[in-house]
Design goal:
Helix content is about 60%, strand content about 10%. By secondary structure, the chain is an alpha+beta fold. Strands 1-2-3-5-4 form a five-stranded mixed beta sheet. Helix 2 (about 10-35) packs across helix 8 (about 150-170) and helix 11 (about 265-275) runs parallel beside helix 12. Mean pLDDT is about 80; it is low at about 255-260 and about 385-395.
Length: about 400
């Protein structure tokens, strides 16, 4: 019983009923002009072929038939002008169906009128309409609620059938669905990129701060402590700038995220690792200016995450960094001795982020332990990132 009565307590049931009644207003005006009702169905053909009519009908249907989907990119009823003749003819068919549904809705209004006639017959008035010919009796009042039952059933079922027809005829086309899927995919990629940005930047800053603080406490040297605090301050300031940039993107849709660092600024990463007590030996081969911006930006983040992993898992140990630009590729390699206490870094989110960044640019990343050393090797092509630029266009670079 509860399942039967639940739709009657839903507001959308009655907004759908209103949607079914709206064409009756236009029909009632026509009834005063002519009794040729078929002319309305004929007139709906040229009206439905107007591209803007699909937009108008979609707005009305989404508002009254599926209000919970209003404004949603994946709504089952499209809100857009007709872009093809197939969509125009579907709009015509929808208008014809709306006229039929409205006619049935008007006929259903005789049911509450019948209930009123039965109630009035208690006072001795002869019933009219659907119950014309019945004798006036007091027990007619007991029959008055009966016509309301099929009316309520028609309200619920009519609304559901109308909604199903709207979704079928006014729903998004395959092109619309593909566009929505592309938008959702791009949004997901952007969210994943932001998550990686926060992980790399904030994770690196916190790791450097922890290592610097531990080294300063162990050294018990005022001069070293002063240098450590300066390094922590500089690293923290950079992390705050990155955090503010990402938060600005999350707060304001469409806002460019600002300039992101490239490999040309890798020196500050290496200096940060050096100030943490690690001895960093760097070898750069080739012109970093030849590296396309998307590759250079992702290369910077890969190097940042690699150095962070070293400091986090092995501490201030000697690090060898190799950056090579040659033969249309960028090769990054970070090598460090493994700490016997912690072993290799494993397969955490940082290493997974390195693999994802490399795969996004059509490259490969390898992590391996060999002869007591942990090595991260990443190779990125310089000529396979045209589509990647589109994925990063929101960065305003």
């Amino acid at each position: 019983m509860h399942r039967i009565l639940t739709p009657l307590a839903s507001a959308v049931t009655y907004s759908r009923w209103l949607h079914m009644l709206i064409p009756a207003a236009a029909c009632s005006v026509w009834f005063f002009i002519s009794d040729m009702y078929w002319m309305l169905a004929l007139f709906a053909v040229p009206v439905g072929l107007v591209p803007a009519m699909r937009l108008q009908e979609g707005l009305q249907a989404q508002l009254l038939l599926t209000p919970s989907e209003r404004g949603q990119p994946d709504a089952s009823i499209a809100v857009a002008p007709a872009a093809s003749w197939a969509e125009r003819w579907r709009t015509v068919l929808w208008l014809e169906i709306r006229l039929l549904i409205s006619a049935a809705t008007l006929m259903a209004l005789w049911l509450p009128v019948t209930s009123i006639e039965l109630v009035l017959s208690v006072a001795g008035r002869a019933p009219e309409g659907l119950v014309e010919g019945m004798s006036p009796h007091w027990w007619n009042a007991l029959l008055a609620p009966l016509p309301i039952v099929p009316l309520l059933v028609l309200v619920v079922l009519g609304g559901r059938l109308t909604t199903a027809a709207a979704r079928r005829l006014l729903g998004p086309s395959p092109t619309d669905r593909l566009s929505v899927l592309e938008e959702l995919t791009e949004e997901l990629l952007e969210r994943n990129r932001i998550a990686r940005e926060l992980h790399d930047s904030i994770g690196h800053a916190l790791t450097v701060a922890v290592v610097q603080a531990g080294a300063a406490r162990a050294a018990n040297d005022p001069a070293f402590t002063e240098r450590a605090l300066a390094a922590i301050e500089e690293t923290g300031r950079d992390a705050l700038e990155d955090l503010e940039r990402v938060l600005r993107v999350l707060r304001e849709s469409g806002t460019p995220v600002g300039r992101r660092p490239t490999l040309a600024e890798a020196k500050r990463l290496l200096d940060s690792a050096t100030s943490s007590g690690a001895k960093v030996v760097t070898r750069v081969s080739g012109d970093l200016g030849l590296v396309p911006a998307p590759v250079s930006r992702e290369g910077y983040r890969i190097l940042q995450e690699s150095l962070t992993n070293v400091l986090r898992h092995a501490g201030p140990v000697p690090i060898r960094v190799s950056i090579t630009v040659a033969d249309g590729r960028l090769e990054l390699e970070v090598t460090n001795p493994m700490s016997g206490a912690t072993g290799p870094p494993g397969s955490g989110s940082g290493l997974r982020g390195i693999r994802e960044r490399a795969a996004l640019l059509g490259g490969k990343a390898r992590m391996e332990s060999r002869e007591g050393e942990w090595r991260v090797r990443v190779g990125l092509p310089l000529d396979g990132i045209r589509w990647s630029d589109a994925l990063h266009r929101s960065s305003g670079r």
